Amino acid sequence: MPGENTTTFQIEQLGDTTNGQPNNYMSIRLKNTSLAVASAIRRTILADVPTLAVDDVIIQENTSPIDDEILALRLGLIPLASGALADNMNRLKFTWDCDCSSGCEKCRYIFTVDQESNTLEPLSVTQDHFQSGDAGNSPDIDPKPFPVAPRVLRWREGVDCHEPAVSEGPIVITKLGKKQRLKLTCYARKGTGKLHAKWIPASNIALRRVPVIKLNPETLTDVVRQCPEQLEAYAELCPRDVFTCSIGEGIEVTDEAACIFCMNCLADLPDARLNNLVSVDMSTTEFILDIEGTGALTPDQMVQMAIRIMHEKTNAIKTDLLVRLGRQERHDSPDPDEMNDYGDGLDEAW
Amino acid sequence: MSMQKTNIEHSLDYDRQDIYVYPVDNLDYEVLVEMNKSEKHTHMAMFRFFKEDSTIGCIIRDLLLENPHITFAGYRVPHPLQPELQVQVQTDGSISPEDAMIEALEDMAQMFNENVESQFAAAYDQKMEDLRKSAVTHVGDVDM
Ligand code: SF4
Ligand SMILES: [Zn+2]
């Protein structure tokens, strides 16, 4: 019965969490699940998990070499830390759910940038020059959004882990020459990846199948008896060193998870007697989800929000279907006027 | 409204989200799903989920197929620019397509319930705890 297979999670790897940095990388093993569910979590993170991003830019003065439009585009793509939305997605409302006409502190977060160069050296205006005052911003939005510094994860060869994230320095928005000035106001809003890619909290999500590699004991006995000298060469066939060959003992599967399904161990075998020695399959109940974040949300927040969103969405559809079939009165949708008074309690209705 | 719009107000006057997002405060008027009974087959129906895509389509299809009374279940997204998901269901007659669909939706809500979320949180805390322990051992080594 479907109710019985509940997805369970096991965290395989985490990005660097030392020195108080939020991690940007997580590898999760989903067990007892199906491809549909694993893929739904991946797709929900990409399309439906809300974050903040600069959505409107009011440019008061721009004498920098970069055009207003390009500037606005660059500002929009800077990831903003959106941890305030993680436990309560309605701490900030979508613009279209808010009843204000021109934006208010419930549906936007304001940053200002005001820089002027007085030296001959070009002045780099970076994300560090974002200022967010209390004016116009609600104190409820906590932790405060700020532009996240890019951190690059490096893959270390041979070792199955990510090196600590390296900061690449702040994102440069533009450079100013002497007497050039940049003064602007950015309105950050809540949005989802369905509307614009700048709201996607993850820079990379990969869903992998888990390999299941089995040795056929009968073939193995035969091979050990008839042509044990072939086994070492056979273990060498695998580019990921999945097999370990011990003299006299035969061959063992020692690093199953490393398999990349290249099928070298099944095709073009040097000896016909090695046929059927191993079988390479993909698990249908286990998957690995690698999430690399932009810094807007940490990967664990993304997964939790995705699960919550899927739950709410399914319930909303089920209720609607029951209402359409005339089996249920729609009583759960709150009165619009009432809703405004309980803005924060609305997270159920994401 | 007769209020004169400033530039800022004007730029807010978009409805790009309308094709993707349910408006929270007027769900009453928003049709999320629609059922069309087939005229040719007695136990067949086409469900149209608006503003949805393969994310839920694939799960619904899988769950429907797990039901032994379902003889056919399939889904499609008619066009990538059309925010709509269509699920076709045919049963053997012992259950109506709409009951099968409601059952599938209930199962799907169960798949993403609070227990799943808290299991994930527990797994995460466990990993953090493990990491902290190994970090502490490491620091101890250096001190000595
Ligand atoms: S499929 Fe490729 S990577 Fe996997 S075990 Fe065989 S040879 Fe190794
Ligand atoms: Zn507002």
From TrEMBL, chain A:
InterPro entries: DNA-dir_RNA_pol_insert, DNA-dir_RNA_pol_RpoA/D/Rpb3, RBP11-like, RNAP_Rpo3/Rpb3/RPAC1, RNApol_insert_sf, Rpo3/RPB3_RNA_Pol_subunit. Residues 25-320 form the DNA-directed RNA polymerase RpoA/D/Rpb3-type domain. SMART domains: RPOLD. Residues 335-350 have a biased composition (Acidic residues). HAMAP family: RNApol_arch_Rpo3 (MF_00320). Keywords: DNA-directed RNA polymerase, Transcription. One of its GO terms (molecular function) is protein dimerization activity. GO terms for cellular component: RNA polymerase II, core complex. This is RNA polymerase Rpb3/RpoA insert domain. One of its GO terms (biological process) is transcription by RNA polymerase II. It comes from Carpediemonas membranifera. Residues 327-350 are annotated as: Disordered. Belongs to the archaeal Rpo3/eukaryotic RPB3 RNA polymerase subunit family.
Automatic annotation (TrEMBL), chain B:
It is found in: Nucleus. Gene3D superfamilies: RNA polymerase, RBP11-like subunit. Its main location: nucleus. CDD domains: RNAP_II_RPB11. GO terms for molecular function: DNA-directed RNA polymerase activity; protein dimerization activity. GO terms for cellular component: RNA polymerase II, core complex. GO terms for biological process: transcription by RNA polymerase II. Keywords: DNA-directed RNA polymerase, Nucleus, Transcription. HAMAP family: RNApol_arch_Rpo11. Belongs to the archaeal Rpo11/eukaryotic RPB11/RPC19 RNA polymerase subunit family. This is DNA-directed RNA polymerase II subunit RPB11a.
